[in-house]
Amino acid sequence: MDRRNLLPIGQFSQASGLSITSLRHYDACGVLVPTHVDPVSGYRYFRRDQVPTARTIRALRQLGIPVDEVRQLLGAGEEELVAALQAQLRAAERRLEVQRSAVHSLLSRLTEGAGMTHRVTVRQGAAERILVRGATLDNSGLDAFLRSAYQELYAVAGRGPLTFTGPAFIRFHGVCDDENETLVEACLPFWEGGAQPVDLPEGMTVRELPETTLACTEAEGAAAAFPRILGAYDAVADWISAHGFVFAGPVRMVYRRWTGTPDAPDNRVEIAWPIDEPTDEPADV
Question: Residue 285 domain-assigned?
Answer without folding.
Answer: no
